[in-house]
Amino acid sequence: MSNFELVLKLLLQLTVILVACRLVTFVGRRYLGQTDVVCEMIAGVMLGPSLFGLIAPELQQWLFPKAAILLATGAKIPNPSMSILFAVSQIGLVIYMFLIGLEFNTDLIKQRIKSAGLVSGAGILAPFTLGAAASFLLYGKAELFKEGVTPWAAALYLGASMSITAFPMLARMLYERGIAKTRFGTLALAAGSIDDATAWCLLAIVLASLKANASIAALAIGGGIGYVLLSVFVGRSALSIFTRMTKRDGGVSIQTLTLVLIVLMFCSWLTDAAGIYAVFGAFILGTAMPRGEFAEQVRDRTEYLTTSFLLPIFFVFSGLNTQIGLVNTPALWAIALLIVVIAILGKGIACMLAARLAGENWRESATIGALMNARGLMELIILNIGLEQGVITPTLFTIMVIMAIVTTLMASPIVAFLLQGTTYAKPST
Question: Where are the transmembrane segments (predicted)?
C-alpha cells in the first residue's frame, strides 16, 4: 500500500469515526441523558466487529483491517493503516492525560484530606482486593490471561483495573451542575483525584512486575518514582518559566504552547522508555505545571481539538479490539456478570459507605458512590495497556469493556435521580 493510499484510507477512517461518534453522542445526550464519554465508548464498540463487522464484515475489514500483512519473506507485520490510527490515538491520549493532570487540584485534597482519603482508600482497597481474588478464581479458565502471565501478575493487573475511576467524567458532571466547589462536590473531586493518582501508580507497579528481567522491573519502578519526585521537587520550580512567559507575552503564545508540547512529548517518551507507559508521564507533568492564567489558556487552546477529534479515535480503536461475539457461552456471560457485580460492590458500595462514615448524608454518600463507580475512558486506557502488553486476551478485554460501559452508563441517571429535589438538581447554564 502506497503512502498516498494510506493517507486516503486514514482520511476516510477519520470521517467515519467522527460521524459515528457525533451521531451516537447526539442520541445519547438528547434522549438518554448520557455524557459524551459514554456515547463515544459505545460508538467505538459499534464500529468494531461487534456491530459493523456483523452487518458488513467485508466493508468493516476493508476500512479497519485487523489482519496482519504477510511479507514475501514470510514475516507478518501489523497493517500499516491500523498502525497509523493507533499512533494518532496515542497522541490524543497523551495530550488528554496531560490536560487531566493540569486540572488536578491539590488544594482540594488539602481541604478534605481525611474524608477524601477515607473514600479514596475504600475505592482502591475494596475493588483491588475483590479483583485480585477473582483473578485467582478465573486464572486458567476460558483463556482470559495470556500464556506466561503468572497468577500474581494477573491478580495485580485485575485488581488495578477494578480500582480505576472516571475522574474526568466525575469532574465534568460536578462542574456542569455548578456544585464542584460545594462541600459535597469538593469531597467527590478530592476522592476521585486521589483515587486515580493511586490507580496510575498501581498500574506502573503492575507493568513493572510483568517484566521478566529483574533489572527491567527495577528500572520501571525506580524510574517511575524518580520521575514523580523530580517532577514534584524540581519540575514545579523549573516549569514556572511558563508563567513568566505567559505574563511577558500577554497570554500563551504559539512559541510557549510549542515548548509545552515539546516538554510533554519528551516526558511521555521518557516514562514509556522506562517501562511505565506514556500516559503516566503526561499526567504527572500536567500536575506539576503552573496553574492560573497559563493553565486556563493551555486548556482553551488544546481541549476542544483533543476531545472532539483525537479522543474519538482512541475510543474506536478500543472498539475494534472489543468482540462481543467472544463472550459466547453461559460460562463467559457468568464471568462477565461476576466482574460487573464485583466492580459495583467494590467501588460504588464501598465508596458510599466510606462517604457516610466520613459524615455525609445517605443521599450524598450514594451520589459519591455512583460517581466513583464510573470507569469511563480511564478504564479503556488500562485495558488497552493490558492487551497491548500481552497480559489479557481479547476475551477478557471484551468482558472488562462491558463492565466499563455498564458502570459508566449507570452514573448519569443514578446521580440525576439521587439529586432530584435538592439544590444540586439542575445543571448550571
Answer: 6-25, 37-56, 84-104, 116-140, 152-175, 187-210, 216-239, 251-269, 275-292, 304-326, 332-355, 367-387, 399-419
